[in-house]
């Protein structure tokens, strides 16, 4: 299955998703209720060495510029191997992808690993299970994120619940010791925050629906929206795309994950859409 580039999933109940082997990148998720839930920039580039702008980029083995590797690591730019895809016995659709070291990757990150992404859809839910095994004979550490771009109708009509009371690092202002006092976060300007110690669900609230996000295995969550000015500087982000997206990322950044030889780490981000009943 090495040459497949696009993978289409359809669960027995009609939920659909579209992925690319490039980056094991989920670009589209349409649950049974019928509307696209992921933002994908119309100006996105698709090609070797490029990261797709939108959907779910996989950040590994380095978050952002928190280390010597290229920004957000190499996984989002790499060609992953499709291990399997199809419909499970209970009717959910699932695809499994893997990425391992190769000569080019060993030159920038000298570690022997196997990363796996399992994408499962059914009804109103999308589940992303990401895992990493150390197959080498020395320990390594990494930071990671599932950089999910959620599609919203209008960012000014969107609220994020579940972060009230949490500590965060403000990447825009550069301050490390912030705390969100308000229970609901409104996006009114460029926002780039790393929240730590996530234990509750995060909910994206719009007038027509709520999306409940549950993470496990990941300690942190990133909320990112570039705002108008930064949007204009990002060539592959469509004009005013910031008005129609919000990234809520399941991440482990502040305390990197260390794996001894043979050890495995896994983390999950699970999203469920709750349409508002009329
Ligand atoms: O433009 P990139 O490399 O895809 O990164 C997008 C954003 O990704 C977020 O995760 C970071 O917190 C932001 O600082 C960054 O700007």
Give a written overview of the molecule.
This protein is mostly beta strands and 278 residues long. It has one domain (6-275): Beta-galactosidase, Chain A, domain 5 (Distorted Sandwich). The chain is built from two helices and 20 strands. The strands form three sheets. Strands 5-6-7-8-20-17-16-11-14 form a nine-stranded antiparallel sheet, with no helix packed on it. The N and C termini lie far apart (44 Å). 6-O-phosphono-beta-D-glucopyranose binds next to strand 18. Residues 51, 64, 71-72, 147, 171, 192, 222, 224, 249 line the site of 6-O-phosphono-beta-D-glucopyranose.
Short description:
The protein is mainly beta and 278 residues long.
Record keyword descriptors for this entry.
Beta-galactosidase, Chain A, domain 5, 8-stranded antiparallel sheet, mainly beta, binds 6-O-phosphono-beta-D-glucopyranose, 2 helices, 20 strands, globular, 278 residues
Average pLDDT reading: 97
Indicate the radius of gyration in whole angstroms. Answer: 18 Å
Name of the CATH class? Mainly Beta
Put simply, the count of helices is 2
How is the main sheet built? 9 strands, antiparallel
* Total domain units: 1
Ions, cofactors and other ligands present here are:
6-O-phosphono-beta-D-glucopyranose
Strand-residue proportion:
over 45%
| CATH architecture label name | Distorted Sandwich
Percentage of helical residues?
under 10%
CATH topology: Beta-galactosidase, Chain A, domain 5
Instruction: Show unreliable segments.
Output: none
Oligomer class: single chain
DSSP summary, beta strand count: 20
Distance between the termini: 44 Å
Order of helices and strands: EEEEEEHEEEEEEEEEEEEHEE
Structural class: mainly beta
Q: Report the principal-axis shape.
A: globular
Spatial ordering of strands, largest sheet: 5-6-7-8-20-17-16-11-14
